[in-house]
Amino acid sequence: MAPVQVHVGVCGAGLGGLAAAIALKRGGAKVTILEAATELGEIGAVDEVRTWGLNGQVVTRVDSARVKKISGFPHYIARRDHFHAGLTESARRHGVNIIVDARVNKLESTPDKVTATTTKGDSYTFDLLVGADGIKSFVRQQLFPNVQPRATSKVAAYRGVVTRDEVLSKIPEAKSLLSNTMDMWTGPNGYILTYPLSGGKELNVVTSFCKDYYVEKMEEVDIDEFRAYYKDYSPAIQSIIKLVNYTQRWPLLVMPPMPSWTNEHKNVVLLGDACHCMQNHTGQGAGTAQEDGVFLGRVISEVVRGVLSIREAVSLYEKKRMPRAWTKQQLSQVSGELNMCSDPAGLAKRDQASKPELAAPGEGSGSSAAFPELPPNYRSWQVFDSPDSVPGIFYYDAEGDADNAVCEYLQEQDRERGEVDNITMVGKCLSRKWWGAVEYNGID
């Protein structure tokens, strides 16, 4: 059985678009990326959480060794631009055709084809087009012109990067912040997150603060105003904040639940921030976009093998990815509320709940010596880095989920068509998926 020729266009070369392109190419599709920018690039990860006050008391902590043990994966930190460069190189090595300075400004689709035209007048025709073009997605605007992301809270984000040399020369006591850890200072109406980048050569400072209005767009911010947000925090973290010489106010917009991520023909589909942008309090925006891409690549691989049609594959993608993304959007909102709790009673209740993480080290559970053995039913309120509280994030396998979705769908088809063998009880569609590998790989 010869592979079905499938040409997929990806609109946007961000982290989600590149992940999708790599997965689609691995699945046997021909892939072309249309990127609006003239050059490729990205702009842009906790071990201990402290209270905001003068003593910076530790209120919760996470054992990264334990996380690795129970989830099976270590926690790596990378600069977005470094990670983006790696994905770009991987895409090119896989044979993805990346076209820059190709801003799409017109889409036309029929049941069989999609044509994308750029501002330069170049047209490209695909069997499937993926809109991975971010929060201001042109593709989404063509499919759902009335759907727009919106601010669901008055919280905005601020970012800054300082060098290791500067930190050590001006704040020697802050050396620990450049080690292999992440630290968070939580306080009423805001928090500060610090973690090392580039092998400890840099320290990333990411903060959030609740304004008195809904921030809908990026804004310039006076640096003294920014520093004043955290004037009551511990001296240690204030010293770090004073090293940040420039920042901007970033809106934290959320896409409302959408009725669909595709056009009527199921050959234009959205991915990542284009359809599920979320607040940043769980650090899952780019990760969720990459999950989308990996899932989509896997189901499209079954189109290449002749098991599914594009319409069927994209429908499975929508069915499975839409509720998962919406769950993460809600989790991110709640995580921010927990981090920035301002009610004294609620704050005391929150911090009391994480006391087990600060107890004396336990033995016999495999925990590292510096951390306690937690009760089996323990759930941390610091959800963004807790595999116990949110195992669906830490344990998720996008390829496995996609393949299972295909198998479930084929079983449904077998039952509806009555094509289940009476003796073996094996369905015809499902059997063809696995036996097809014999023909596909040219095995006699």
UniProtKB/TrEMBL annotation:
What InterPro entries does the entry give? FAD-bd, FAD-dep_Monooxygenase_BioMet, FAD/NAD-bd_sf
Which Pfam families does the annotation name?
Answer: FAD_binding_3, NAD_binding_8
The keyword Flavoprotein is assigned to this record: yes
**Amino-acid biosynthesis recorded as keyword:** no
Q: Which GO terms describe its molecular function?
A: FAD binding; monooxygenase activity
Q: What SUPFAM superfamilies does the record point to?
A: FAD-linked reductases, C-terminal domain, FAD/NAD(P)-binding domain
Record-linked Gene3D superfamilies: FAD/NAD(P)-binding domain
Q: Which residues form the FAD-binding domain?
A: 84-327
Regions of biased composition (Low complexity) lie at: 359-370
Location of the region described as Disordered in the Swiss-Prot/TrEMBL record: 345-371
Keywords in alphabetical order, please. FAD, Flavoprotein, Monooxygenase, Oxidoreductase
Family statement drawn from the similarity comment of this UniProt entry: Belongs to the paxM FAD-dependent monooxygenase family.
Identify this protein by name: FAD-binding domain-containing protein
